[in-house]
Records
---
Amino acid sequence: QTCALPIWLRNEVTRLRHEVRAVTNAQPAKIGAAPVNSPLPSLSVVRFTNAVTATVPLGHALVIGGWASPEPGKRLLSFMTPETMPDAPGSVLAQTRIMSVPDALLDRLGLQALRAETAANQGPAIFSAAQFATLLKTMEETEGVDVLTAPRVLAANGQAAKIAVTQAQPDGTSTGPVIHVTPTLDADGTNVRLEVNLEQIGRAHV
């Protein structure tokens, strides 16, 4: 047989149940958590540009860039190799590779001259076909070297062409390389005068 509780005791039990329920449903505080309105790290546009003019033998590689990459300890380099095509007389195929290269590798290969903080500090460098082949092989075997893109374009002799490998971002900006190149063959067709304007747009945390 159960006994009826006095009214005051029933009220006290009800009050205690409400307090227990309120404590159970409360969200525990996170130690060290940032306030809700704390700003998150933002992304800023990082833009690298370089404009060069150089006479390059067919099959050789023109190297420009050397900017400090948003990734610490690396440099952005652009390699452009001009070639002619038997089935496209009077045109020049410009094969481009944009690579992220560790500073340590440039030091190991004695290529410190490719390191530049601004476009004004570094002129174009030219590698022979054999030198460039050896350099590419070394880079392929080195950890930390990344080929960001390898576009190519067929341009008519003396005519400007554009290479753009960009990706639209949610904020409306576009990232990636945009290259304007005007190749002009010399009289005997063994050298190419390259006028190159390279712009590499990326994003980095600030």
Note: Residues 7-25 form the longest helix (19 residues).
---
Amino acid sequence: MRDITAPLAVSGKRGNADVLIAVDEAAEKLGLFPGVALTQARAMYSSLDVIEEDAEADNALLETIADWCLRYTPLIACDTPNGLLLDISGCAHLYGGEDALAADLAGRLETAGLAFRVAIAGTIGAAHAAARHGKPGNYPGGKEHALLLPLSLAALRLDADTVAA
């Protein structure tokens, strides 16, 4: 049985290397993050629990969550490997506004025991950047510049080679 207090990470092969692809809050507090080599992480923290990714199961779960999110909007897209895009234009008022819809979604995801970050913005790119690289929240259209300015180039959904250049 797993010690639930031990830091946990998911590893997977990226190119020729085994790297961390997800970490829990305890592992994050130790300074671990996705992209760290698995050998380095284990050398730094011998108590780290590591499980191997199951991309097929992850995709199936993402599809299930997407189907479940039809309660909010009929326009949903999977943003693999671990995200969803919901176009809530014209739907948010059914929940009392964008913030109320986000709160309902967050509450349901939390109850299901899922880790999540919810961001609402005027563009897909800005919402993606806020949820994955910035601070989750509601960013009204026209405020994208202030949201994106402090973030790294990776927040713009550029490939790794372009960001490195």
Note: The two ends are 45 Å apart (CA to CA).
---
Amino acid sequence: KKVYKHRIYKCEWKIGDVYAYRFESEIAKEKGYYGRYLLIQKVDEGSWYPGHVVPIVYFRITKDRNLPSLKEIKDIECIKIARKKIPKVIYDYRGKLINTSKRIIPKSLIYIGNVNVIKPKEEFQHTNDISYFNFSWNNLEKSVIESNELFNLN
């Protein structure tokens, strides 16, 4: 028997790279996001079993259906992902985008450019990458919309 050798994937994105993903799912139509863009900016790197190097990202959602310029990106607020109550409310803006191969990344992803990473003021900084919420490409729209809706209600 042949022993399967794991092919370790390393994300080629650079820190600061911004990509745009257009919302086109049924949930996006239902919730009013259809045609708008999800902006994904790599801010760090993390690991995923058995040793893949994956991006840790900020997500932003455009207000309209226009693709923003690099200058406009800094004016779009990062979406909040998770909330923890230790003694007080802590906002988490970073998510781990799970990639195990280049083929998983949608062909429709648009590279906008590289821009300096501007951290949200009240962001909680994790000490390790295990603490980040994981996002996979196959349910990215649903997960991001649900996170955004949750924090817009509060």
Note: The radius of gyration is 16 Å.
